[in-house]
TrEMBL record:
GO molecular function, one term: ATP binding
HAMAP family referenced in this protein's UniProt entry, alphabetically: RecF (MF_00365)
GO cellular component terms given for this protein: cytoplasm
Name of protein: DNA replication and repair protein RecF
Membrane listed as a keyword: no
Residue intervals of the RecF/RecN/SMC N-terminal domain: 3-334
Lineage: Bacteria, Pseudomonadati, Pseudomonadota, Gammaproteobacteria, Lysobacterales
Residues that, per the record, bind ATP: 30-37
Species per Swiss-Prot/TrEMBL record: Dyella japonica A8
NCBIfam families according to UniProt: recf
UniProt xrefs under SUPFAM superfamilies: P-loop containing nucleoside triphosphate hydrolases
Length: 359
């Protein structure tokens, strides 16, 4: 799939920017703080309804503006063109598709954007939340049952946590329906996550063998968030006292995690910062390639600040691979990265929130 047009209003320093995009590689170059990453952020928003920058929720809205919006024309591999819109007025987000109001999940389901950026090493070195988000975004795009199980799970979790925080401990009968709902939906979520990871493993293996051959074969480990041989319902009942003391639910799908283990670097701490980044890049590319296998088209791939994140040979290898599969690639840099000076690429100069095509 590819973006044909992108219009961004009220997002950080982009007051009103409108561009047409070509297939293949597009580079956004300009000085620090010019607004390059914000362009990628806008594309990513259409696919995730959040930014990839930590804590960006409120900072996204341009200072002094009362609304932000991103509009795009998205062309699918089969020729379908969808008009997508995402706007935020105050704290409320609103999605549109082809002029009609749509839910955020419909919008996110239509448009797939993956991003490798300076914060991506958090996928490997950071907390479990980032890894669950990565996993669930992938599962959502290939397993249709996932979203309803996930929503039901979140609702039941919220209800149980409210009971756990009540001033006087509520009777057991109030917990039972929510614990039964958590049990049922967690087993669906767990099954779909397992299925997704099983499909992802060969893609991760190939991507990491290409990026980090010196670390040897790779294994992915998954922890579902509660002990293996017991049902979540039974555990929730037996651990209710402990959860009451803590004021929240301490086990379940919301505590799941996964990790990557290399034969020659069995602990996360064995990886250098550069190796963490390459591992995160491998995970991003693997997710994109599994998406392509299942959905018949590559997601749009954003590479933020490519030249400062990867050495030249890795930059060239990644861009060549993405060119060879025909993915649309949006790259930022203070200069056009050397690896992109060979082969076709369109360049926009970005300056103080204005985007001007150069080539
Ligand atoms: N809410 C906001 N309102 C207005 N301007 C903002 C807001 N948030 C950030 N900015 C400014 O917008 C610009 C956004 O920069 P962005 O991160 O997109 O730049 P960049 O070109 O990628 O920079 P770098 O090369 O330094 O990574 C910065 O100048 C920043 O100070």
């Amino acid at each position: 799939m590819r973006l044909e047009t992108l219009r961004i209003r009220g997002l950080r320093c982009l007051a009103d920017a409108s561009i047409s995009l070509e297939p293949g590689v597009t580079v956004f170059s300009g000085a620090n703080g010019a607004g390059k990453t914000s362009v990628l952020e806008a594309a990513f928003l259409l696919s995730h309804a959040r930014s990839f920058r930590a804590g960006a929720k409120d900072a996204l809205l341009q200072r002094g503006a009362d609304a932000l919006s991103v509009f795009a024309e998205l062309r699918h591999e089969d020729g379908r063109v969808r008009r997508l819109g995402l706007g935020r007025q105050g704290a409320r987000w609103e999605a549109k598709m082809d002029g009609e109001t749509a839910s955020l999940s419909e919008l996110v389901g239509e448009c797939a954007v993956v991003c490798f950026e300076p914060g991506s090493h958090a996928l490997i070195a950071g907390g479990a939340e980032e890894r669950r988000r990565y996993l669930d975004w992938g599962v959502f795009h290939v397993e249709h049952e996932f979203i309803s199980a996930w929503r039901r799970y979140q609702r039941a979790l919220k209800q149980r946590n409210t009971l756990l925080r009540a001033a006087t401990p509520p009777p057991e009968a109030l917990f039972l329906p929510w614990e039964a709902e958590l049990d049922a939906t967690a087993s669906t979520i767990d099954r779909l996550r397992e299925l997704y990871l099983a499909a992802l493993r060969p893609h991760i293996g190939r991507a990491l063998a290409g990026l980090l051959p010196e670390l040897g074969p790779v294994e992915m480990r998954y922890r579902r968030g509660w002990a293996d041989d017991v049902s979540l319902g039974e555990l929730l009942a037996s651990q209710r006292g402990r959860d009451l003391a803590r004021g929240h639910t301490t086990i379940g799908s919301h505590r799941a995690d996964w990790s990557i283990v290399f034969e020659h670097a069995p602990l996360r701490e064995h990886l250098s910062r550069g190796q963490e980044k390459l591992t995160a890049l491998g995970c991003t590319l693997a997710q994109a390639s599994l998406y392509a296998e299942r959905r018949g088209e590559w997601p749009i791939v954003c590479l933020d600040d490519l030249a400062s994140e990867l050495d030249k040979s890795h930059q060239a290898a990644v861009v060549d691979q993405l060119r060879s599969v025909g993915a649309q690639v949006l790259v930022t840099g203070t200069e056009v990265p050397e690896a992109l000076q060979v082969g076709p690429a369109r360049v926009f100069h970005v300056e103080q929130g204005l985007l001007n095509p150069l080539l």
